[in-house]
Amino acid sequence: MKEIKNDALWVHLHWLTILAEQGSFTRAAERLEVSKAAMSQKIKELEGMIGVSLVQRTTRSVRLTAAGEKLVEDLREPFARIAQSFYSVRDGSGPVRGLVRITAPVAFARQQLVPHIGDFLQAYPQVRLQLEVTDRLVSLSSEGLDLAIRHSDALPDTHVALPLCETRTLLVASPAYLAARGQPENPQALSDHNCLYYPRGVEPPRWTFTAASQAGEKVTVKISGSFATNNSESIRDAALQGIGIAMLPDFSAQAALASGALRQVLPDWQALDAFADRLWVVRPYAAQVPRAVTTFIHWLRARFVDG
Question: What is the phi/psi pair of residue 285, to 5°?
Fold first, then answer.
């Protein structure tokens, strides 16, 4: 067994915890911004220091041995305290700085968030933002993310969820489509139209509405169409081509409605059970949150408070 040198040990132990968190050498190396070979070498060195196997390697993934799991579990709390102490001292004075890793839905990120990111970075030049654009509900802790913008009613109980803004679901179509096919007067008329929709499971597509003048009354209509996709921005683009009537969250249709490229359909009816009615900012629970993260959250909520 090799002699253990404390000045080298802490780095090795930290890298092991990142490997356990990420579940693969490739993702762990990306998180630490090192090569996969360097990552693998550090774990081998640690196993040499401790004298037992810590990782079971396969061609596709890695698993910790019982000894590795115990070591990582014992390290979790002290490393968390070290990180909290570091951020507390670092963020207590001077300008806001650091890296903030974010995930956000595709349509919202491209159309609403990214166009305003420059304002934030100009105000806080020592903060770096890393944005993952995806409609997948990723695990923040396992992928090393600081916060998520979620358009969902399913929020994790183990995280802090802060309301960002309210949203509405809209029906829209291009002027050309409405000129050719006519303006539907009620939800039932949608069965005669080409509807562009977000597929949900294997059930035939249905849209449900309620009228403002008839509170509580619901109307459900079976619809059909030539195009369906699980991305609202793609549905919007199909509507812009005049293919059919689309159901979209308002943040995806906003610019096209303002320019007149799309028009709202059935404005006196509100769609139900289609998209969530609120955007949220979600972050993992932590006793000490880096000031760059809290600053970005405050900026987001101030920027989008009016929708």
Answer: -70, 135
